[in-house]
Amino acid sequence: MKTPTLECFPCILVVTDIHTNKLEYCNQYGTELLNLDSDKLMTYGLFDIISKASSIFFESYIRPTIVSTGSCQEVQISLTPNTNEKVASVANAKLADSKIYWSIYVAVARDKLYQELLSAREHLEAKTEELTLLTRVDPLTSLLNRRAAIDDFNQKTNELDINFTPTSILLIDIDWFKKINDIYGHDRGDEVLITLSQTLKRSTNASDIVARWGGEEFLVILNNSNTKDTQVFCQKLHIEASSITLSGSENLSISIGGSNLEENNLTKPDIMEKYIKQADIALYEAKAKGRSRTEFFDHLHLT
Ligand SMILES: Nc1nc2c(ncn2[C@@H]2O[C@H](COP(=O)(O)OP(=O)(O)OP(=O)(O)O)[C@@H](O)[C@H]2O)c(=O)[nH]1
Protein backbone atom coordinates (compact mmCIF):
# COMPACT_ATOMS: atom_id res chain seq x y z
CA MET A 1 0.00 0.00 0.00
CA LYS A 2 1.23 3.47 -0.92
CA THR A 3 2.16 5.53 2.17
CA PRO A 4 -0.50 8.21 2.56
CA THR A 5 0.64 11.81 2.76
CA LEU A 6 -0.64 14.27 5.36
CA GLU A 7 -2.11 16.31 2.49
CA CYS A 8 -4.77 13.66 1.91
CA PHE A 9 -6.45 14.09 5.31
CA PRO A 10 -9.61 16.22 5.19
CA CYS A 11 -8.62 18.24 8.26
CA ILE A 12 -6.22 21.07 8.95
CA LEU A 13 -2.94 19.85 10.42
CA VAL A 14 -0.86 22.59 11.96
CA VAL A 15 2.23 22.74 14.15
CA THR A 16 2.93 25.86 16.23
CA ASP A 17 5.65 26.74 18.69
CA ILE A 18 4.37 26.80 22.30
CA HIS A 19 6.56 29.83 23.13
CA THR A 20 6.47 31.99 19.99
CA ASN A 21 3.13 30.78 18.51
CA LYS A 22 4.86 30.75 15.09
CA LEU A 23 3.41 28.42 12.47
CA GLU A 24 5.93 25.66 11.74
CA TYR A 25 3.81 23.45 9.53
CA CYS A 26 0.45 23.53 7.81
CA ASN A 27 -0.80 20.82 5.44
CA GLN A 28 -2.12 21.67 1.98
CA TYR A 29 -5.76 21.27 3.05
CA GLY A 30 -5.04 23.94 5.69
CA THR A 31 -3.15 26.38 3.48
CA GLU A 32 -5.96 26.24 0.90
CA LEU A 33 -8.75 26.66 3.43
CA LEU A 34 -6.93 29.39 5.33
CA ASN A 35 -5.73 31.18 2.17
CA LEU A 36 -2.11 30.99 3.29
CA ASP A 37 0.82 31.48 0.94
CA SER A 38 2.64 28.13 1.31
CA ASP A 39 5.95 29.74 0.34
CA LYS A 40 5.74 32.15 3.27
CA LEU A 41 4.31 29.70 5.79
CA MET A 42 6.97 30.45 8.41
CA THR A 43 5.99 34.13 8.48
CA TYR A 44 2.54 33.32 9.89
CA GLY A 45 1.63 32.96 13.53
CA LEU A 46 -1.24 31.15 15.26
CA PHE A 47 -3.08 34.43 15.78
CA ASP A 48 -3.08 35.08 12.02
CA ILE A 49 -5.35 32.08 11.46
CA ILE A 50 -7.74 32.24 14.44
CA SER A 51 -10.13 34.99 15.51
CA LYS A 52 -9.39 37.52 18.25
CA ALA A 53 -11.84 35.82 20.61
CA SER A 54 -10.20 32.46 19.89
CA SER A 55 -6.78 33.99 20.56
CA ILE A 56 -7.97 35.14 23.99
CA PHE A 57 -9.47 31.69 24.56
CA PHE A 58 -6.13 30.14 23.54
CA GLU A 59 -4.18 32.26 26.04
CA SER A 60 -6.68 31.86 28.87
CA TYR A 61 -7.65 28.20 28.49
CA ILE A 62 -6.10 26.19 25.67
CA ARG A 63 -2.42 26.96 26.35
CA PRO A 64 -2.68 26.50 30.17
CA THR A 65 -4.50 23.19 29.64
CA ILE A 66 -1.91 21.97 27.15
CA VAL A 67 0.96 23.01 29.44
CA SER A 68 -0.54 21.27 32.47
CA THR A 69 -2.01 18.12 30.87
CA GLY A 70 -0.14 17.78 27.58
CA SER A 71 -3.25 18.07 25.41
CA CYS A 72 -6.60 19.73 24.88
CA GLN A 73 -9.59 18.04 23.28
CA GLU A 74 -12.53 19.29 21.19
CA VAL A 75 -12.16 23.00 21.80
CA GLN A 76 -14.25 25.34 19.67
CA ILE A 77 -12.29 27.99 17.82
CA SER A 78 -12.98 30.28 14.86
CA LEU A 79 -10.61 30.22 11.90
CA THR A 80 -10.11 33.40 9.89
CA PRO A 81 -9.37 32.53 6.24
CA ASN A 82 -9.62 36.27 5.55
CA THR A 83 -10.33 39.39 7.58
CA ASN A 84 -14.11 39.32 7.09
CA GLU A 85 -14.83 35.65 7.53
CA LYS A 86 -14.95 33.34 10.52
CA VAL A 87 -15.18 29.59 10.17
CA ALA A 88 -16.45 27.64 13.16
CA SER A 89 -14.08 24.77 13.92
CA VAL A 90 -13.24 22.15 16.49
CA ALA A 91 -9.62 21.54 17.44
CA ASN A 92 -7.61 18.89 19.22
CA ALA A 93 -4.12 19.88 20.29
CA LYS A 94 -1.20 17.94 21.73
CA LEU A 95 2.16 19.10 23.11
CA ALA A 96 5.42 17.40 22.09
CA ASP A 97 8.93 18.91 22.26
CA SER A 98 7.69 22.48 22.80
CA LYS A 99 5.49 22.18 19.70
CA ILE A 100 1.72 22.09 19.62
CA TYR A 101 0.34 19.60 17.10
CA TRP A 102 -3.12 20.65 16.02
CA SER A 103 -5.81 18.79 14.13
CA ILE A 104 -8.61 21.18 13.29
CA TYR A 105 -11.98 20.23 11.81
CA VAL A 106 -14.34 22.63 10.14
CA ALA A 107 -17.62 22.50 12.07
CA VAL A 108 -19.78 24.98 10.18
CA ALA A 109 -22.69 22.56 9.72
CA ARG A 110 -22.49 21.50 13.35
CA ASP A 111 -22.32 25.12 14.47
CA LYS A 112 -25.32 26.03 12.28
CA LEU A 113 -27.28 23.12 13.75
CA TYR A 114 -26.28 24.22 17.24
CA GLN A 115 -27.43 27.79 16.54
CA GLU A 116 -30.72 26.44 15.16
CA LEU A 117 -31.16 24.30 18.26
CA LEU A 118 -30.47 27.33 20.47
CA SER A 119 -33.05 29.48 18.69
CA ALA A 120 -35.56 26.59 18.72
CA ARG A 121 -35.00 26.29 22.46
CA GLU A 122 -35.48 30.04 22.97
CA HIS A 123 -38.68 29.88 20.91
CA LEU A 124 -39.96 26.93 22.96
CA GLU A 125 -39.11 28.70 26.23
CA ALA A 126 -41.02 31.80 25.10
CA LYS A 127 -44.01 29.65 24.08
CA THR A 128 -43.91 27.77 27.38
CA GLU A 129 -43.89 31.07 29.24
CA GLU A 130 -46.83 32.27 27.14
CA LEU A 131 -48.76 29.06 27.84
CA THR A 132 -47.96 29.19 31.55
CA LEU A 133 -49.31 32.74 31.61
CA LEU A 134 -52.45 31.63 29.80
CA THR A 135 -53.07 28.82 32.28
CA ARG A 136 -52.90 31.39 35.10
CA VAL A 137 -55.37 33.84 33.64
CA ASP A 138 -59.18 33.90 33.70
CA PRO A 139 -60.18 34.30 30.03
CA LEU A 140 -63.17 36.60 30.65
CA THR A 141 -61.70 39.11 33.06
CA SER A 142 -57.94 38.66 32.44
CA LEU A 143 -57.47 38.48 36.22
CA LEU A 144 -55.58 35.61 37.80
CA ASN A 145 -57.66 32.46 38.04
CA ARG A 146 -58.27 30.55 41.26
CA ARG A 147 -55.37 28.15 40.71
CA ALA A 148 -52.89 31.00 40.14
CA ALA A 149 -54.23 32.87 43.18
CA ILE A 150 -53.61 29.82 45.37
CA ASP A 151 -50.05 29.47 43.99
CA ASP A 152 -49.29 33.16 44.53
CA PHE A 153 -50.84 33.14 48.00
CA ASN A 154 -48.67 30.17 49.03
CA GLN A 155 -45.59 31.98 47.76
CA LYS A 156 -46.64 35.10 49.63
CA THR A 157 -47.15 33.26 52.93
CA ASN A 158 -43.64 31.79 52.59
CA GLU A 159 -42.26 35.31 52.15
CA LEU A 160 -44.39 36.65 55.02
CA ASP A 161 -43.16 33.85 57.27
CA ILE A 162 -39.66 35.33 56.89
CA ASN A 163 -40.60 39.00 56.84
CA PHE A 164 -44.14 39.67 58.09
CA THR A 165 -46.16 42.69 56.99
CA PRO A 166 -49.90 43.14 57.65
CA THR A 167 -51.89 41.45 54.90
CA SER A 168 -55.65 41.27 54.32
CA ILE A 169 -57.73 38.76 52.43
CA LEU A 170 -60.94 40.00 50.86
CA LEU A 171 -63.69 38.03 49.17
CA ILE A 172 -65.74 40.38 47.03
CA ASP A 173 -69.10 39.26 45.70
CA ILE A 174 -71.48 41.10 43.38
CA ASP A 175 -74.92 41.55 44.94
CA TRP A 176 -77.98 40.13 43.14
CA PHE A 177 -75.91 39.08 40.16
CA LYS A 178 -78.44 36.47 39.11
CA LYS A 179 -81.00 39.26 38.77
CA ILE A 180 -78.55 41.33 36.70
CA ASN A 181 -78.22 38.41 34.29
CA ASP A 182 -81.98 37.83 34.29
CA ILE A 183 -82.91 41.48 33.72
CA TYR A 184 -80.08 42.78 31.49
CA GLY A 185 -78.93 39.55 29.88
CA HIS A 186 -75.89 37.32 30.28
CA ASP A 187 -73.71 39.48 27.99
CA ARG A 188 -74.33 42.55 30.14
CA GLY A 189 -73.52 40.35 33.15
CA ASP A 190 -70.18 39.53 31.52
CA GLU A 191 -69.50 43.22 30.87
CA VAL A 192 -70.17 43.98 34.53
CA LEU A 193 -67.68 41.28 35.57
CA ILE A 194 -65.07 42.79 33.24
CA THR A 195 -65.70 46.36 34.42
CA LEU A 196 -65.49 45.40 38.09
CA SER A 197 -62.28 43.45 37.38
CA GLN A 198 -60.77 46.56 35.82
CA THR A 199 -61.83 48.57 38.87
CA LEU A 200 -60.16 46.02 41.16
CA LYS A 201 -56.96 46.14 39.12
CA ARG A 202 -56.95 49.93 39.12
CA SER A 203 -57.57 50.14 42.87
CA THR A 204 -54.78 47.77 43.89
CA ASN A 205 -50.98 47.73 43.71
CA ALA A 206 -48.85 45.45 41.54
CA SER A 207 -47.80 43.44 44.60
CA ASP A 208 -51.42 42.69 45.59
CA ILE A 209 -53.12 39.52 44.37
CA VAL A 210 -56.33 40.10 42.41
CA ALA A 211 -58.16 37.03 41.14
CA ARG A 212 -61.50 35.82 39.92
CA TRP A 213 -62.32 33.32 42.63
CA GLY A 214 -65.49 31.95 41.01
CA GLY A 215 -68.54 33.14 39.00
CA GLU A 216 -69.21 36.64 40.43
CA GLU A 217 -66.78 36.36 43.31
CA PHE A 218 -63.31 37.93 43.46
CA LEU A 219 -60.33 37.50 45.75
CA VAL A 220 -58.09 40.40 46.66
CA ILE A 221 -55.05 39.97 48.88
CA LEU A 222 -53.81 43.34 50.01
CA ASN A 223 -50.11 43.45 50.62
CA ASN A 224 -48.73 45.59 53.45
CA SER A 225 -52.15 46.81 54.49
CA ASN A 226 -53.16 47.11 58.15
CA THR A 227 -56.77 46.87 59.35
CA LYS A 228 -57.35 50.60 58.97
CA ASP A 229 -55.85 50.70 55.43
CA THR A 230 -57.99 47.74 54.41
CA GLN A 231 -61.17 49.36 55.80
CA VAL A 232 -60.43 52.52 53.80
CA PHE A 233 -59.75 50.39 50.70
CA CYS A 234 -63.11 48.63 51.09
CA GLN A 235 -65.01 51.90 51.59
CA LYS A 236 -63.49 53.26 48.39
CA LEU A 237 -64.25 50.05 46.55
CA HIS A 238 -67.94 50.23 47.49
CA ILE A 239 -68.02 53.76 46.04
CA GLU A 240 -66.15 52.69 42.87
CA ALA A 241 -68.46 49.71 42.35
CA SER A 242 -71.54 51.85 42.82
CA SER A 243 -70.37 54.05 39.94
CA ILE A 244 -70.91 51.08 37.59
CA THR A 245 -74.37 51.75 36.18
CA LEU A 246 -76.74 48.91 35.34
CA SER A 247 -79.63 51.06 34.12
CA GLY A 248 -80.57 54.72 34.46
CA SER A 249 -81.46 54.38 38.12
CA GLU A 250 -79.76 51.20 39.19
CA ASN A 251 -76.08 50.83 40.09
CA LEU A 252 -73.91 47.87 41.01
CA SER A 253 -73.34 46.91 44.61
CA ILE A 254 -70.88 44.51 46.15
CA SER A 255 -70.45 42.78 49.48
CA ILE A 256 -67.03 42.17 51.00
CA GLY A 257 -65.84 39.69 53.60
CA GLY A 258 -62.38 40.28 55.04
CA SER A 259 -59.85 38.56 57.24
CA ASN A 260 -56.37 39.58 58.35
CA LEU A 261 -53.35 37.30 58.36
CA GLU A 262 -51.77 36.56 61.73
CA GLU A 263 -48.03 36.44 62.04
CA ASN A 264 -47.66 32.82 63.17
CA ASN A 265 -48.07 29.45 61.45
CA LEU A 266 -47.96 30.96 57.97
CA THR A 267 -46.37 27.93 56.34
CA LYS A 268 -49.02 25.43 57.51
CA PRO A 269 -50.40 23.60 54.42
CA ASP A 270 -54.06 24.54 55.06
CA ILE A 271 -53.30 28.19 55.80
CA MET A 272 -55.10 29.60 52.75
CA GLU A 273 -58.16 27.47 53.43
CA LYS A 274 -58.29 28.89 56.96
CA TYR A 275 -58.23 32.54 55.90
CA ILE A 276 -60.53 32.06 52.90
CA LYS A 277 -62.99 30.39 55.25
CA GLN A 278 -62.78 33.35 57.61
CA ALA A 279 -63.34 35.79 54.75
CA ASP A 280 -66.22 33.65 53.50
CA ILE A 281 -67.90 33.70 56.93
CA ALA A 282 -67.51 37.50 57.00
CA LEU A 283 -68.93 37.73 53.44
CA TYR A 284 -71.92 35.63 54.46
CA GLU A 285 -72.45 38.04 57.34
CA ALA A 286 -72.25 41.05 54.98
CA LYS A 287 -74.89 39.46 52.74
CA ALA A 288 -77.07 38.60 55.72
CA LYS A 289 -76.87 42.15 57.05
CA GLY A 290 -78.34 43.53 53.83
CA ARG A 291 -75.45 43.52 51.28
CA SER A 292 -73.49 46.50 49.91
CA ARG A 293 -71.22 46.41 52.97
CA THR A 294 -68.02 44.97 54.37
CA GLU A 295 -67.65 42.69 57.36
CA PHE A 296 -64.38 41.54 58.90
CA PHE A 297 -64.02 38.12 60.49
CA ASP A 298 -61.96 39.54 63.39
CA HIS A 299 -64.72 42.01 64.24
CA LEU A 300 -67.41 39.33 64.16
CA HIS A 301 -65.56 37.43 66.81
CA LEU A 302 -64.46 40.34 68.90
CA THR A 303 -67.89 41.94 69.24
N1 LIG B 1 -72.91 36.66 33.05
C1 LIG B 1 -72.30 35.76 33.78
N2 LIG B 1 -72.92 35.22 34.84
C2 LIG B 1 -72.27 34.35 35.61
C3 LIG B 1 -70.95 33.96 35.33
N3 LIG B 1 -70.55 33.08 36.29
C4 LIG B 1 -71.60 32.92 37.13
N4 LIG B 1 -72.65 33.68 36.73
C5 LIG B 1 -73.97 33.80 37.34
O1 LIG B 1 -73.86 34.44 38.59
C6 LIG B 1 -75.05 34.17 39.31
C7 LIG B 1 -74.75 34.06 40.77
O2 LIG B 1 -75.94 33.97 41.44
P1 LIG B 1 -76.09 33.75 42.99
O3 LIG B 1 -74.99 32.82 43.46
O4 LIG B 1 -77.51 33.35 43.26
O5 LIG B 1 -75.75 35.11 43.61
P2 LIG B 1 -76.47 36.54 43.51
O6 LIG B 1 -77.62 36.53 42.57
O7 LIG B 1 -75.37 37.51 43.20
O8 LIG B 1 -76.99 36.75 44.96
P3 LIG B 1 -76.18 37.24 46.21
O9 LIG B 1 -74.75 36.83 46.02
O10 LIG B 1 -76.84 36.54 47.35
O11 LIG B 1 -76.36 38.71 46.30
C8 LIG B 1 -75.64 32.90 38.69
O12 LIG B 1 -76.86 33.23 38.06
C9 LIG B 1 -74.60 32.48 37.66
O13 LIG B 1 -75.20 31.94 36.50
C10 LIG B 1 -70.31 34.52 34.18
O14 LIG B 1 -69.16 34.23 33.84
N5 LIG B 1 -71.03 35.42 33.45
Automatic annotation (TrEMBL):
Gene3D superfamilies: 3.30.70.270. It catalyses: 2 GTP = 3',3'-c-di-GMP + 2 diphosphate. Pfam families: GGDEF. Residues 165-299 form the GGDEF domain. SMART domains: GGDEF (SM00267). Its EC number is 2.7.7.65. The lineage of its organism: Bacteria, Pseudomonadati, Pseudomonadota, Gammaproteobacteria, Oceanospirillales. This is diguanylate cyclase.
